[in-house]
Amino acid sequence: MSLTLLIVCATHAGRLLEEPWRLRPQNGLGVPVPDPPPAPPPGLDAKMNTLLSWGKWGVLICGVAGLFICAGQMAIGRKNRSTFAADGATGIPWVLGGLSLAATAAPIVGVFFR
What we know:
- With 114 residues, the protein is mainly α.
- It has helices spanning 3-18, 45-76, 82-103, 105-112.
- It has a domain at 56-112.
- The protein has 4 helices and no strands.
- Helix 2 (45-76) packs antiparallel against helix 3 (82-103).
């Protein structure tokens, strides 16, 4: 690439950065970009639903176990082990946050594909 061509390309790129409206197609001159809705591959629909339901079940079991562990830490740390109880208490929002994220994962992802 010659030095002159490099300077011309750099100048053109600089102009595009200064005037971002030039980057968008105008007056119907741009090529329409296809945006099809998401669709599962044939035959994979039921298998993915099964896999997602197993994942939800696993998160539910982990959430219940996490709350039990936090409750146990708080019960054990009640007398003379206040830091252990505090660790259990500070774990509760994390467990609830994880469960909330798991419960709302599908609607959150669905927002981006509408």
